[in-house]
Structures are given as C-alpha cells and as structure tokens.
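Section 3.1: Structural characterization of target chains.
Under the original work plan, the team committed to producing a structural model for every single-chain target entering the pipeline before any wet-lab resources were allocated. The record below documents one such target. The sequence was received from the expression subgroup and is listed exactly as submitted; it comprises 159 residues.
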Amino acid sequence: MPGRRITERKVRLDGTHVEFDCEPLLIEPGRRAILRYEIDLDRAIPGTDLVVPAGAVTIAHYWMDQPYNVYHWLAGGRTLAYYCNVAEPLEITDDLVSYLDLVVDVLVRPTGPSQVLDEDELPADLDPRFRQLIARALEQLADPRPISREIERESRRYL
C-alpha cells in the first residue's frame, strides 16, 4: 500500500479524540489492521522510566474481537516495548481505524514483568460494561508472552 495513508482515531471516554496520520500495512475491514507510525519527538511514558526516542517506529496492531490494541515500539530494528491500550474497538475500514480508549494500559518489555498503567485514572462512575472489558483485557494480558510472540512475528513481516 505504498503512498496510502490512513487515520488512527483514539476516542477518549469524554468523547474527545485525537487522530494520527499513519501508513496502512494491512487492512482487513471489520476484522483487523496493522499500521505504521514514526515517532517525531522523544516520548516519555508516564509512570515508567521508558522514553521512546524520536525516529522510533510504531507498528500498531488492532483487532475487532480483542479488548486491546498493541503498539510495537522499535528503535533501530530492536524492540523497545509492546504498549497495550485497553480499548473497545469501534471501526476498521480502508480509511479509518478507531477505538475507544479505556484509560488502562499495559507496558510489556522484552525482558521483565509487564506493568499495568493508569488504573488510578479510571472514573468512579465508569460504565460496568467497560469495567468488565478492562478486566477481560487484563486477564488476557496477564501472560504477555503469547501476544508478544504474535506481535513480533507480524511486525517483522512489514519491516
């Protein structure tokens, strides 16, 4: 898909959203997508000591049937981390990948345990349906090895 662009839309719980212009690597409308995005500025990950440097590449993986998406961060071809956004997938089309960000994230490093982030930022009045979705995602990501192996394999196909 050389030269094509696609929008990634992250919708927040308050209805606001942020959009990113990405390169589509794989689009299966209504099913899954893999996008590429280059980081333009150093990005410190709050609550961790990780800094994703400018020039690093994000290979982002989305599924309509999973309660999360995964950003595979690479610098110089080396995996820095897998950043799992707990989310409700909203839409995957040829022009748009959209998800509802459910605040909680899981940082998985190539070595060491995974780290759950931002749970303390959940609103007290969060819809119980979203709490169940978060619990399901955290359960699935409790052992990150299977998903990290899958992400590594899939990302390498496009590098």
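The longest helix spans residues 145-158.
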